[in-house]
Write a structure and sequence with these properties.
Layout lengths: L1 H9 L10 H33 L15 H11 L10 H17 L13 E3 L2 E3 L9 H22 L3 H32 L4 H6 L6 H4 L1 H14 L11 H4 L9 H26 L7 H6 L8 H23 L5 H31 L4 H43 L31 H13 L7 H16 L1
Antiparallel strand pairs: 1-2
Length: 473
């Protein structure tokens, strides 16, 4: 009942929409400036942190300690020559960066930086530290992030070039794959909070963060948000190793800068959303909020929110410096065969637990039922693996038998005129091993040490006649 009262209070949208027009404008400008300043700071700190991790110096020319490097990069990109590819669809080519950038900024409008009540005073007017809120605020964020993917897709298609098109197709597949897992991780949060409002979700984390209650959902979201932001090691849409630059290969100047800006804005947005849904939002961490009653009042909540968000942004940089880029098929397999099935099973488990709590089952009974269900699932998966392994062994033995009966004809990968992979039941011939240097040296030494064979009678006579002929000459 206590949590329900929190939800009702937080979902009372009368706290929003009553600000004067000038205060709404100030909040909107603050949201835009907050994203821009965070992006500028994030770019230069990423370059500095990655340099430190790789024992390099990093930016150290522009500004004190190189802190104005990202601003210098932005000015440089705006002053570079703007090139439009001759064969491109010009209207879509120019519109694509704009379509990708604008929705990236829209999600911050429903992120709460503080309590929903009139907590702070701005020029004498009491207001909440949030631009607005919606009963379906999280769905609004998902919608804006999905629309931003159209900018990448349209950029790859309108460039009329092979590599950008492949990058756009990869970006589309990433969004489809990882937004499913992301949405399922959000569903568990909705079940526990009873709301899709961001302020209501934060209100429900007054006792315990959802990252503790729903650890699987939190981990799935962390992986999904890296894939959603097209960040390393999941930056296949712009993989320079095989796509030159991906969807932005044919872009330059300010349009290229907009794509880079969109990527970093997405980093900030998904980190802010993770803080809101799983890390208590603007609430102070447990030790501070326990011993200091004023930690969650006034302007302090904004400090806790920004600190948590910076920790997640540092995680983005750390992952980029530590992990290599994965193959695209591995990335898609992770999304469809691991994250989505795990998130669906976890969601069913969370729904079952919530239903049992509503039916007044004791905590011990819930543990017994959940443990029993997990054991049954593990046993079934074990039996499936056993039978699958037996079937594979039997099929392999049958294929070997058929190959032996057919005379064991070796597989020729160039039989059709071009290299092809082996079909099921076929195997490549063993690759001849190149002898090592020591083996070659032993062979040479052995050849030199072999004694000369004695010459036969005919050879000796020939040699004698040749010698006499030379003497006569």
């Amino acid at each position: 009942m206590h949590g329900y009262a929190h939800v009702v209070a937080a979902e009372d949208m009368t706290a929003f929409g009553t600000d004067p027009w000038w205060l709404i404008g100030i909040k909107a400008v603050f949201c835009f400036a907050f994203l821009m300043l965070t992006v500028l700071l994030c770019i230069v700190l990423e370059r500095k942190v990655v340099a430190w991790m790789q024992l390099r110096i990093g930016p150290n020319r522009h500004g004190p300690w190189g802190m104005l490097q990202s601003l210098a990069d932005g000015v440089k990109l705006m002053l570079k020559e703007d090139i439009v590819v001759k064969g491109a669809d010009k209207a879509v080519y120019i519109l694509a960066p704009i379509v990708g950038t604008i929705p990236a900024f829209m999600a911050i409008a429903v992120i709460p930086f503080g309590p929903p009540g009139n907590e702070v005073s701005i020029f004498g007017t009491r207001t909440a530290m949030q631009l607005t809120d919606l009963p379906v605020a999280v769905l609004y964020i998902l919608a804006t992030s999905s629309i931003a993917a159209y900018g990448v897709v349209l950029a790859g298609w309108s460039s009329n070039s092979t590599y950008p098109l492949l990058g756009g197709v990869r970006a589309t597949a990433q969004v489809i794959s990882y937004e499913v897992a992301m949405g399922l991780s959000f569903a568990a949060v909705f079940l526990y909070s009873g709301s899709m409002s961001t302020s209501a979700i934060v209100a429900e984390q007054d006792d315990r963060w959802f990252a503790v209650l729903l650890p699987v959902s939190f981990l799935i979201y962390l992986v999904s948000m890296v894939g959603e932001a097209h960040r390393a090691p999941f930056d296949m849409p712009e993989s320079e190793g095989d796509l030159v630059g991906g969807f932005n290969t044919e872009y330059s100047s300010i349009k290229f800068a907009l794509f880079m800006l969109t990527e970093y804005v997405h980093m900030v947005t998904v980190s802010a959303l993770a803080v809101t849904l799983f890390l208590g939002g603007w609430r102070a961490p447990a030790p501070i909020s326990t011993y200091w009653e004023g930690a969650n009042h006034g302007w302090w909540p904004m400090l806790w929110f920004i600190a948590k968000m910076l920790v997640l942004l540092f995680g983005f940089v750390w992952i980029r410096a530590a992990l290599p880029r994965v193959r695209y098929d591995q990335f898609m397999k992770l999304g469809w065969k691991v994250l989505i099935p795990v998130s669906m099973v976890w969601l069913m488990l969370v729904a079952a637990v919530r239903a049992m709590r509503n039916e007044n089952y004791s905590f011990a009974d819930i543990i017994y039922w959940v443990a029993g269900a997990v054991i049954i699932v593990l046993l079934l998966s074990f039996l499936v693996d056993i039978f699958r392994e037996r079937g594979e062994k039997a099929r392999q033995a049958e294929e070997e038998k058929q190959q032996a009966e057919s005379g064991g004809v070796p597989f020729d990968p160039m039989a059709g005129g071009y290299p092809v992979p082996p079909l099921p039941g076929q195997a490549l011939p063993p690759t001849p091993r190149r002898p090592s240097r020591a083996e070659r040296d032993r062979e040479l030494v052995g050849t030199a040490a072999e004694p000369a064979e004695p010459a036969g009678p005919s050879e000796s006579n020939t040699a004698t006649s040749q010698g006499r002929g030379s003497d006569d000459a």
